[in-house]
Amino acid sequence: xxxxxxxxxxxxxxxxxxxxxxxxxxxxxxxxxxxxxxxxxxxxxxxxxxxxxxxxxxxxxxxxxxxxxxxxxxxxxxxxxxxxxxxxxxxxxxxxxxxxxxxxxxxxxxxxxxxxxxxxxxxxxxxxxxxxxxxxxxxxxxxxxxxxxxxxxxxxxxxxxxxxxxxxxxxxxxxxxxxxxxxxxxxxxxxxxxxxxxxxxxxxxxxxxxxxxxxxxxxxxxxxxxxxxxxxxxxxxxxxxxxxxxxxxxxxxxxxxxxxxxxxxxxxxxxxx
Length: 273
Fold this sequence. Notes:
alpha/beta; Rossmann fold; disordered N terminus
């Protein structure tokens, strides 16, 4: 792909590169803490920081551990932060020709087993937010509480802003018949198609999420507020936070507020208003 549309996966990549450069710790390339775990036929790259109750961080499409350069320093002071390169992302190589959110959620569950962790708090951004929801649906025993920001349940103009979705449709039409020879070209197309074809989750299916959940979006997000509100309304134990003056990168654009509020959500008992 010669031109990458500024969509969910491109924005994730852009923000991680910009903000990841400001921290002295090389998140995503830290040889002191980086480790691979054999998980469901792949070698999944992880970095662990801090001690305490486990907290799993799941990045977005086209991203990597670097996306959490503004998140890890705060939470690692009191949590055992497990930052992961998802399947087919970063240093976690996957040569298969397809990818699904269900597959990825099962990866995270198996990773926690490999690290001997029974359950964890979860923060997911964008595709990672979707993965957090699917993980809680498929493996409810693994999630204590989750914070999901910028997640969508369907690949269309109701779950993404019309301009974002139209750009993706144009990119698909332009690039679908192109020859992809290198591993990178094939992988880039695979992760683009993940968001073009998926997820396909009915709102009613979210009833399977039993853990307290904080559902987040920016007021100028790529995900319409109406869609995020329906996600919130469909989860039995959930809070909604629409971040003012924010785009898709809530955890970066409003780092301090994001870290503090999510931390408070994890610490305090859930009360349904």
